[in-house]
Amino acid sequence: MFVSTNGCTVSIYRYSEEVTQSGDVSELGLENVSRRSLEKSTTLQVEKLSEKEEMLLQQLARKQEELDKAQKQLKEKDEKLRLKESQVADLQKLLKQRDPETKTKTGLLATDTPPSKQPAPFPRKNQVPALPPHPLPLHTPYETVNLQPTAKPRKSIPGHTMTCTPAPSPPELSPPAQQPAQLKVQCLHKGKRPPCSMHRGSVATDGTPAYFTSHDSTSLYKYQFDTEQWTELVSCHYRNSGLVVLKDHEPTAVGGRDGSLPTNKLLTLRQNELWHETYPQMRTARSSPAVVSTSDCNHVVVIGGCINIDNWTTTVEILQVKSKTWYKVANMTGPLPFPSAAICGDRLHVIGSDTSGYSCSLQEILQQCQPISQPPLHSVPHTSIWRYLPTLPQKDSTAATLGGELVVIGGGFGESSVNFIHQIVDQKWVEIGCLATGRRRCLVANESPEKIFIVGGISEDSVEECTVIDATAFM
């Protein structure tokens, strides 16, 4: 019994021990599994935190770049502001040197003619308030302009003169023979409104229809002077192209841009309403150039233009239409933003949207023609043929030919627009008339040598009217 009892006891003990040992093994297995899963989840969390940290660092770097850019822009604005303040201070000093006494209540200097004795100015509508002092144009009082003597004495008309001191002095622009130096202009009538708002685009005409494009638009419109009808044509391939009419009343688009890239192509709209590349490409790709053609339509002059964002070129190229050959000539003295050009007799004039402008002899610039395909000669064209024009009365004016003379139309500073028409007389800009509505960046086409057709522009309100100005009557 004892032995068997002990044996039974022993056997029961051993069985219990085995069960206990097997239970310990299961607990160890579960503990290992839970430890591994915990390590795996911890690793995933660490990876996610690393990704978030990297994203935060990238965002921080971008924010830092934006902050640096904003600080740079702020610094540039501060520099421009300081420059304007210094210019205003210089202008005030100049005004004090001209007359130590202050201006009278009428706004005239003490040495000026009293208002009661002054000739009545041209009537103005929508006249803008007096502008603050500006370092570029200096206004002088109204005065009577003495005309050149002729066989029969003629009356002089009042003009609002602008004085300037360009360096070097531009050549005197001689008036046409048997005509007074100062034009008399009058508003004939208003034409039909254009289909859309137009400003700072391009215009081309050969005297019959006129073609118009607006700034940053591919739309092309034709205006018939005799019927006063607008017609929308096939859109241009590029924005901000210059326009010129060479033959068969077909417009040719010069340059332009596709997105932000300028082009050097010339595309002609044929009567089949398709654009054709009938002329060779320019050497310099550009948008918003000034484009004019000679009276015989055998030469096209392409002046300036934008080759990159806010980067305006000084290059001038000439296309000989018959031979389809490009020539390079002397560059302008300096760049002009949004150039506007006009040919008056033997003079080529070009102005910018600022108050700068240049002039040169058309004969001299044509004599400088050197084929672009040839290597540079020892006598490389230089800029001596270009002369400064007197400082323009306003910014954003438009150049035009009226009665064989150069005139600038409209303009303004900031949000203000003016309705003046100015002409150069004795190296000064003289007001010879005014529009019914103040406008800047308008488009101008010649209906005839004595008539100009003014379209659109920008004013305090959008300008959509057309005006015909006549210069056939002289005093």
Question: What does it look like?
Answer:
It is a single chain. This protein is of the alpha+beta class and 475 residues long. The chain has a domain at 139-470: Neuraminidase. The protein is 22% helix and 28% strand. It has 2 helices and 33 strands. It has a 6-stranded antiparallel beta sheet, with no helix packed on it. It has a 5-stranded antiparallel beta sheet with strand order 16-17-20-21-25, with no helix packed on it. β23 (347-351) and β24 (357-361) form a beta hairpin. It is elongated and about 115 Å long.
Structural class: alpha+beta
Helix content: 10-25%
Strand order in space, largest sheet: 1-4-30-29-28-27
Number of strands: 33
Assigned CATH superfamily of one domain: Kelch-type beta propeller
Beta-strand share of residues:
25-35%
Could you tell me the mean pLDDT?
Answer: 77
Radius of gyration: 37 Å
Count the DSSP helices: 2
CATH class category label of one domain: Mainly Beta
> What's the CATH topology name of one domain?
Neuraminidase
Pfam family, one: Kelch_1
Keywords: Kelch repeat, Repeat
List the SSEs and their pairings.
Layout: H1 2-98, E1 138-139, E2 143-144, E3 158-159, E4 161-163, E5 186-191, E6 202-205, E7 209-213, E8 221-224, E9 229-232, E10 242-247, E11 250-254, E12 257-258, E13 261-262, E14 266-269, E15 275-276, E16 290-293, E17 299-303, E18 306-308, E19 311-312, E20 316-320, E21 325-328, E22 340-344, E23 347-351, E24 357-361, H2 362-367, E25 370-371, E26 387-388, E27 398-402, E28 405-409, E29 420-425, E30 428-434, E31 443-448, E32 451-455, E33 466-470
Antiparallel strand pairs: 1-4, 2-3, 4-30, 5-33, 6-7, 7-8, 8-9, 10-11, 11-14, 12-13, 14-15, 16-17, 17-20, 18-19, 20-21, 21-25, 22-23, 23-24, 24-26, 27-28, 28-29, 29-30, 31-32, 32-33
